[in-house]
Every structure is written in C-alpha cells, then in structure tokens.
Design a protein that fits this description.
alpha+beta; globular; 4-stranded antiparallel β-sheet; 463 residues; homodimer; 14 helices; Aminopeptidase; 9-stranded mixed β-sheet; Alpha-Beta Plaits; 22% strand; 2 domains; 18 strands
C-alpha cells in the first residue's frame, strides 16, 4: 500500500469524525455582518486555530479592525509551499421562516437519488469547503506523522462582508503569508460528476452616478419639452452604453483585450455546456452579449457593462406628471485580463460626462473594483492538481472560467505576487446565501480525498 | 352714469362683503380626496347653491357617485348664454407644519409692495377664482335687478380628484347644461399687470409600461453580458424616445400636427416672455425641445414625450450586482390639436413592442388621456372679452397658450360641443396645491370688475 492509498483509507475510515467536526463548526453562528454575532465569529476563529494546533501547526488568531484572522503554518517539509485560503464567516440566515431546519443546527438529509445533504448555514460556503482541506491534512498527519508538502492556512472572518480587513492584513503580515501558490476552495464543480479548476475570472469596476437637470422637479404641463428631463437623460446614457451588437460602446473599452487563447478555447469546446439550457433555465433564449461569440465566451472571457438599478421621478401608484430633476443608476463593468479597472472607470466617466448638456450636472460615486486574472493552463502545479482530481473523480477535470470576480485574489496577486489555484467541490444547487443551504456528503467525502491526492501530487516524492 | 359704471361702483362699494363671503367659503374644508371631509364638500355645495338662489338663480345641489354638483340657471334674458364652470373642492393641506397660518382660517396679509394677500387653502384655486364671477353677477343684480346676459353656472366638487363624476353627469344632464360657450376661471394672468385669455392647451396620453427579461433577477458574475438586462432594455427604449434634435422619435407621432397659426405667432411675439429667465428660474439654460423652435412654441404648441419615473433593479444603499429582470417607467405625451390620443397611445405601444427582443416581454397600463384644443383668435366673444379685460387692466390682453392639459374641457367639447374661454386672475406665485396658498386682493377686486365688464361686453345692449 502506498502512503497515498493509506491516507485515503484513513480519510474514509474517519469520515464520521470529520463530519462531526463540520457540525461543530456550523453550530457556531459566525455571521460576520451582524454585530450581535461578533463573539461567535471569534469563537469560530479560535475553534479553527485549535484544529490547526492539533495538527502541529503553528497557529494563531490575529486581531484586525474587524473579525480576526486565523493563520497556521504546518511543519517545514520539502516541496512547494502552498497557502490555503478559506473563510469561517457565513451569510445572515434571513428569512428564517423559509428554512426547513434550523440554520445553525446541522443535520444529514438522505435524498432519493442516494446523495445525502449536509444541511446548515455555511455547510457549503465556506465551512464545508475549507474543512475538507483541514481533514485531508489530518489524514496525512495521522498516517505519515507529517504533511507531504509545506502547508500554511489563512482563514478570514469577513469574506461575506467584503473582506475590509484583508488588504491591511496582507500589508502587515505579507511576509508571513507568502507562499509559492494560493489554494482557494470557494468554487464549484463543473457538474455533479466532473471536478473543475477555475483558471480565469473576470474583474470588475462598480460605479453609481446621478444626473441633475433643473434645480427642482417641474410640471410637464408647464415645462414639458423645453426643460431637460433627468430620467430621459439617464435613459439616453444607459441606452448608449451598449451597441446594437451587444458590445460596450464606450470608446477605448476594448483596448488591451485579447482574443481567447487557443488552449482555453479547446478546453471549453469539450466542456459539456448547453448554452440553450443555460439561458432557457432562466427564461431566455437569445444571448444578449457580443454577436458572433459563444455564450461561454460572453460570460467568461468578454468584458461587459451591466446596469444594476435605476431610479428617478415618480415610481409609486398612479401617475404624477413631473419632469424629474434627478435620476441615478448603479452600474458595473465585468473586466477581462488586459483591462485596468481605474482606466475603465475613467473611460466610463468621460463617456457619461460627454453626454451631459452644459446646463446639467452629473456626480459619480466609486464602489469596489478588482482585476481580472487568467492562469496559464500548462502550469506545473495546475497540471498536477488536474491529474489528481481526474484520478479521484474518474472524469476529465474541467479547466473552466467564471464570469464572476474574486477581489481577494487580486489583493494576493497585487500585494504578494501570488497566483492562485481555485479548486472547490460545491455544486450549483447548494443554495449558498439562501435558506436551506446544503453541501453534498459526496462533495465532503470525495473533497477530502481530492485534497489528499492533490497534496500527494504536489509533493516531490509523488509522481 | 352708464349701467356698467354703476355696476362697477357697486362692486367696489361692496368689496368687503364680497371678501367676507370668500372667507366663509374658505372656512369650509372641502378637501375632495379625503373621505373625512365628505360632509364639508356637501356643505360647500349647499353654500354655493344658497348664494345662487339669493341671486334669483334656479339653483340645485345634485348628487353624483362622488361629491355633488351645483347647477344654477340665471334669469332668461337676451344675448349669449354662458355656462360658467368652477370647482369648490380643494387640495389637501399636508404638510400642515409648513403653513404660516391655519389653512381653513382665512386672513389678510398686507405686503410691503402694497398688495394684500388673501391667505387660505382654496383662496386662489378655485374658491377665489369662482367667487369673483358670482360677485360680478351679484353687482349686476343689485344695480339692474337682473343680469345682462343669460348665465348658468356649474360647480363641481371633484376637480382635485380628477373629475370622475363629470363625464357621467354631462351624459345625464347635458341638455340642461348646454350653452353658447363655457367660461372657465381656473387660469393665471400673464403677469402681475397683464390680463390673459388662454386660447390653446395641450392634450395628453399617459402610460405605464414594464419590461420583463429573465424569469428572475440574475447575478452579473454568472450571466453578465449574455442575459438580457431589463434596466438596460428600458434605458434603450427611453433613450430612443427622443431624437438628438429634441423631437419625439416615434414613427407617425407628428402626423396631423400643424405649424403654429400666424395669428398666434404674432400674438406670442409681442408677449413679454423671457425664455432665458423662464429656464433660468429653474436652473436651466438650454431648451431641450425641438431644435429651431422657440421655447414658447416648445411648451405651448408642440407635442412632447416626458418620462415621469423609472424603476428597476437595486436602488438602495450600497451595491448589488444583479441583472434586473424587470424594469418599468411612467410616461406621458403632451399633444397638440390634430393628434388623436388613442392613436398616439397605439403608436407608442407599437414603438416599444418593436424594441422588445423575442425572448422578453412588455406590458402596458393605460392612464388618462385628453384632447388638445386651440381656439380661433378672432371669435366674437373672445374679442369682446379681450377688450373688456384690456379696459379694466389698461394693458393689452395676452392671448396665451398653456402647455398643460384641461381634460374637463375635452369632456364639454366632446359631449356638448361647447367651446371654452379661459379667463382667470391667479398669479404665478399663488402656491396653489402648496402650503400658504394665497390670492391677491387685487386679483379678487379687479377680477370682480373684469367679469362685470365681460358680462356687459357680451350683452347685446353694450357695445
């Protein structure tokens, strides 16, 4: 029996104990955005620190301006040094009446198809997803007395609150956290059977803007036609934002945007993705993005502009014939590699400002931004992880993109120069952030086994 | 002394008594939109009936589905038969704390410039404006024992609630109300010194529409670019509504619209109207209507489209990267003579529908509409009234337009075939519908004298 086989057997044999530890963690209601749960957040951090200490990690709970961080360093061994990142905080549970079980009283719910759901807030996001890595390390430690590579871990408690303390923490503790690569667990499998590594994610820039026309709302009987209408103006701006062909019509927006690499295109072509179903599942059938590009390319590899909300004038019951003097909108741009968020923000502002008549005004409010990233598909560790996942799941690992943005990874890249591997075992239907969140028991079990294999693959002794 | 001079002297001598009657009427809180004041509305109607009865009118209070109407017929004498229209109901008084006096306790407030304000809800709109006509009739009656022409009056109690009972009432009592012309008092002077007859008003069509894209709100990280965004869609529709040159871009919208008649153009050219000040007073300087047309033409003689409100997606604090699945807007069109409201509604719906992608949907909700009207400037009674006003105010009477709409006049025109003369003595700063409504004592006094003169001018015995 190789040591890998022995460690996998150890993980299998201790699954119930691993699950009990997940239940313990879920029972701590570490809701980061609600001040009433601050002590619980600290309790979750302490609990994690204790788990790492039990694995002979040099583990500490470190204060921040918000909820604390947990940092742990495993035994110094040969091979690559990985920094595993997860977060112990969870989303609020409202509306509570939509839950079928108590969110902080985890339970198992067998399903007709043979799967078992682990129910509870955080079961998937991110307590289940992070604990499987800890449990993989525990199995290695139990069998071999150490870990196959050098492992550090960082758990934050404010991910669901936008990670306000992460940047300052990296600034202060960067040298203590730097490793060869980040492992990030907060992602999905491709489908129920197919493991995935997310190799590309979009950045974003978010803005709010408000236009002002007259110095008060006017009556359309008196001023209609002659007085500039703020809602008409903001409609005109929004209307010009995207061209007939679905592209973003801001001059310079596509500067620096490359065509999709051939390696990604080939990977994506073999992915079982049904664009018709993807749109059909939400009641649509006509892709709204750039004409001539596939839906996957539109959502993963192409930048876009989306208006998230608009307001202005009278929106209540009945009718008021007002000419609104103010109107606003919230908008964000999803970016791809090659686009600088600050430059895109300025291009947008220039675009809007040029559409404002000389007697009107516009104000802008900055919200968050993040840089896009795209990993080369032939990296050594990525390739090793891919093979390890394929071995566990007996399915070719998907090298996928995501249209979403992962701002914290930009922080690690910008401040510490670290690239990331995104490997997670959540499934599309896990209802994260919603009532009745669940994590599949198979995600949990095979997730532990997957990390056991990846650690083996990364070690120099395993080929 | 001619009888006209005697009647004017009578009006002057009895000004205090006239004013006391106005105070009595203001003290009745006849707020039509608040059910708690229903008995007060009836009390105001009874009060007016009693006033007319005292002038030997055949006066009745007539029930409707809402608040009652007051109908009065004066003595049958030779000459044209006029139907004077006014309304005894008033707007609500909220917010009460912004009033400097009690809204239903009228008072006189001398001003530094020598004017005196009559303060109270309805002082101008419409109790003051309607009572001056009654007081003019009273002066004629006192001096000559009768009236110089045949006068009927109609006072409604739901004007501030949209006149829901007026159409059915005209349907039922049309034969009893038909006269040679309507006199309508609910309008302004041109400026403090210049009397005005409003000869042209715009119609309107009001609509609400809502677009639906996906069957739920989506996350822009997952669907951004590929899924149709309802706010983007409604922005595109609003943006296309008006062309760069300020015109309405709906195909067929201007069919049947005539150029301004030369007579109106000449009248308007001599009106002391300062377009720069008109816009400057509300913080604007660039006319937003059709390029190449004067501001007066834009607001009085040209149709337009105005968006009164828009909604969709997330408009609260902070940021949500949602792709909204629903967005809506309220819009109205101001129309001019030659445009059929029903046709314009359909053109708008066709225009919007053509912009909806095949996998999305739009729904429409109809609100009110009204036909535009434009009086010939050389009508016999209009000319007589004009000269009478000029004689009283010693200023050339303005023959003005208004960009607003007067739906009830469409009812009289459509159902009874009656044209209207709009003569009122309100001033721009009367704060109607707002706290601290006032009517100038000079409007009241010279308003009575103006109506005395107009009745004289209309009579065949006066030249």
């Amino acid at each position: 029996m190789t040591s890998l086989d022995a460690v996998l057997a150890q993980a299998d044999a201790n699954l119930d104990a691993s699950l009990e530890r997940l239940f313990e963690l879920i029972r701590i209601p570490s809701v980061s955005t609600e001040p009433a749960y601050a002590a619980d957040c600290r309790r979750a951090a302490e609990w994690l620190k204790d788990q790492l200490a039990a694995l002979d990690f040099d583990a500490t709970v470190r204060d921040t301006a918000g909820h604390p961080m947990v940092v742990g360093h495993g035994p110094k061994v040969a091979g690559p040094h990985v920094l595993f990142y997860g977060h112990y905080d969870v989303q609020p549970v409202d509306p509570l009446h939509l839950w079928n079980t108590q969110p902080f009283e985890p339970s198992l719910a067998p399903q007709p198809d043979g799967e078992t759901y682990i129910l509870g807030r955080g079961a998937s996001d991110d307590k289940g997803q992070l604990l499987i890595f800890v449990e993989a390390c525990r199995a290695w430690k139990a069998v071999t007395g150490t870990l196959p590579i050098q492992v550090s871990m960082l758990f934050e408690g404010e991910e669901e609150a936008g990670s306000p303390s992460l940047g300052p923490f990296l600034e202060q503790h960067g040298d203590d956290l730097r490793a060869d690569i980040m492992l990030v667990c907060d992602t999905d499998m491709w489908d129920r059977e197919t493991p995935a590594i997310t190799t590309m994610w979009r950045g974003f820039v978010s803005e709010e803007f408000e236009v002002t026309t007259a110095d008060r709302d006017l009556h359309s009987g008196m001023f209609g036609s002659a007085a500039r209408n703020a809602v008409q103006l903001i409609g005109t701006i929004i209307g010009k934002l995207r061209a007939e062909d679905g592209s973003v019509a801001i001059p310079g927006f596509y500067d620096g945007v490359s065509e999709l690499a051939e390696a990604n295109r080939q990977e994506w072509q073999r992915l079982p993705f049904d664009a018709e179903k993807f749109l059909g599942d939400v009641g649509l059938s006509i892709p709204a993005g750039e004409a001539g590009r596939s839906v996957l390319e539109q959502v993963w590899a192409r930048p876009t502009a989306e208006v998230h909300g608009v307001w202005g004038g009278y929106a209540g019951e009945g009718f008021k014939t007002v000419i609104p003097a103010n109107a606003g909108a919230k908008i964000s741009f999803r970016l791809v590699a090659g686009q600088d968020p600050a430059r895109i923000r300025q291009l947008f502002r220039d675009f809007v400002t040029a559409l404002i008549p000389a007697d009107c005004a516009v104000s802008f409010k900055s919200y968050a931004s993040a840089t896009a990233q795209s990993m080369p598909l032939d990296g050594e560790l990525l390739t090793k992880a891919r093979h390890a996942l394929t071995a566990e799941w007996q399915r070719e690992t998907a090298l996928a993109g995501t249209g979403g943005s992962i701002p914290i990874l930009g922080e690690f890249k910008d401040r510490l120069g670290m690239e990331s591997l995104l490997i997670g075992f959540a499934r599309f239907d896990n209802r994260i952030h919603s009532p009745n969140e669940k994590y599949d028991l198979s995600s949990f079990h095979k997730g532990i086994r997957s990390w056991v294999r990846i650690l083996a693959a990364f070690s120099e002794t395993e080929k």
